[in-house]
Specification:
five-stranded mixed β-sheet; Double Stranded RNA Binding Domain; elongated; alpha/beta; 5 strands; 30% strand; 38% helix
């Protein structure tokens, strides 16, 4: 059991470092993106009992994107909007025997790859990803807000750099 927890902790700490930003062999992955839908997933009932609210974190996502001038739409609208993407924030947490939570939070932007059929079909692929991990106690929910804000800063910086001075 202890070995499994250490393996989970190691994977939480190392996985964001292995895949930050755009994937390998990619270029201008955020260029021309016009709409983004946001979802927050992975919040355990135990964290919810301590006041971590998915709706609150999702609202933070939407507000920060909108304040940066990025059009935020619903996931249902994103399905039919050709240049829309889905920004998924995922939270994983594991409680250790001393009452601390080891957490990992990731942002994954899934973008559409058109299939070229008459129906307008597409598949989605992660075109931008980053993550952070840390340690918190049950009453330190602000750490999750700080980590999510930091990830959003990176995303907005990359989005702005790719869409401000370059042709679409």
């Amino acid at each position: 059991m202890v070995v499994r927890r250490w393996l989970l902790l190691a994977s939480l700490l190392l996985s964001p470092l292995a895949r930050a930003g755009a994937p390998e062999f990619s270029y201008m992955t955020l260029n021309g993106l016009t709409h983004v839908a946001c979802v927050m997933v992975g919040i355990s009932p135990e964290l919810t009992a301590f006041g971590v609210r998915g709706e609150e974190l999702e609202s933070l996502l939407k507000a920060r994107l909108a304040s940066a001038g990025i059009s935020v739409i619903s996931p249902a609208q994103a399905v039919t909007e050709p240049r829309a993407a889905l920004l998924e924030a995922r939270l994983l947490a594991n409680k250790d025997p001393h009452g601390f939570y080891h957490y990992g939070i990731t942002l994954n932007l899934r973008q559409k790859i058109p299939l070229g059929n008459r129906a307008g079909g597409y598949v989605s692929q992660v075109g931008w990803s980053d993550g952070e991990s840390g340690l918190m106690q049950f009453n330190e929910n602000f750490r999750l807000h700080d980590a999510l804000s930091s990830l959003l800063d990176k995303f907005i910086r990359d989005f702005t750099a790719q869409n401000s001075a370059s042709p679409q």
